[in-house]
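Hi Q.,

Before the meeting this afternoon, I wanted you to have the cobalt (II) ion prediction in hand. No need to reply - just skim if you have a minute. The sequence and ligand are here:
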Amino acid sequence: MPVAGSSVRAEQIELMASLAHQERTSGEFEKSLAKLSDMESDLSPEQQANLREWRRDFKIATCLPNEFVKEFARLSSEALTVWGKARKENSFKTFAPYLEKMVALSQKKAELLGYKDHPYDALLDTFEPDTTSKELTELFSKVKSEIQTLLKKIEGAKQVDGSCLHGNFSPDKQLEFGKVVLEAMGYDLDKGRLDLSTHPFSMAIHPSDSRITTRIHQSSLFDSLSCVLHEGGHSLYEMGMLPEYYGSPLCEAVSLGIHESQSRLWETRIGQSKPFWNHFLPKLANTFPTLKEVPLETFYKAINKVAPSLIRIESDEVTYSLHVIIRFELEKKLIEGSLKVADLPEAWNAEMQKTLGITPPTDTEGCLQDIHWSMGAFGYFPTYALGNLYASQFFATLQEKFPDWEKRVASGDLLFVREWLREQIHQHGKTYRAADLVKKVTGKPLSPEPYITYLNTKYSKIYE
Ligand code: CO
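Predicted structure with the ligand bound:
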């Protein structure tokens, strides 16, 4: 869309948000819900799950007046454009007035939705239902301190040489190889597509139409592949839902955290594992002959190289969650009012220095780097770190169920992973809430231990 189109787009989005809200809160819908509630005991467990989700959706929608929904939609659309401009000019001042309005509206949203302990919980609940900031603070503080200890060990060890991933790699060939990997994952290219975009994303329309994008750097090999694995993981989740439930919560993802667990599982646990590259490195070397001289061990270490960096989406597996936790802490303060928008750049830089030992030279590489706050998506960030925790716990169970998983992956067999995820997670849609699903699949409530153990084990071998 051309830049000048953004104001009319804001009007369109405002109208769509308003019309959708009217439908979701209509008297007719309320009557149907009441009718279903009367016969609840006669409904199947799946129907009851639908009813539970429709009720929840209705409750949230009715808490927000239509005028508020319109205002929020309009502002987020406008702020998004200003954020883009501010990034180009590296001017936080340009964005600050819009962010102030966005924070104020989000605070109002929290009040309208209601909460027990903390206004942030109301916003968090819209992305990761049933989760509270208190729980996250406990989970994340453990994760943060463990990762920081690991990071110190890594910094004191012999550094990894990542140079084999840099050179001149034809974008067309990278894209072709991405499709080879997708097909091995069980991604059906008759039900999906892989295209290029500035920011990689996945977009599901129906289980039979779930598309993804990647971005390709000609000089760097692994960026696009890890995007393909990540977005492919998201897309397989959507493809694995049952089409007969389309249009109902049973054909929707449990939460953003569970969604992210699917992408991170494929991206990191499979795509950054040695068995995977045992199979795929010779194939990649056929496409890019400079890799023919590169031993598996060198390649494996290169794709798992750890180095604190400024940009979340480009960060390595060890520091990634730290980026997310920093944003969680800052946005919680913005919402509770203990951090003023004007002081955000300074607070951001101080946290980056304290946690990762680096200070962004510009705000574009600092607090302006992510799109979420401009859209008013406060409470979204924690789902990225939760995705890592869920993924590790799911994967620990997969490892128990398939003790020979490494052998199978090393022989190029990935379909059993997709099948297991499908059977355990994808096909159920929203039948189970996140906490129940985790217990059902893994036998235990969510814990940071599998994630911490995984990182420590893997990276103490890479950085001896
Ligand atoms: Co994702």
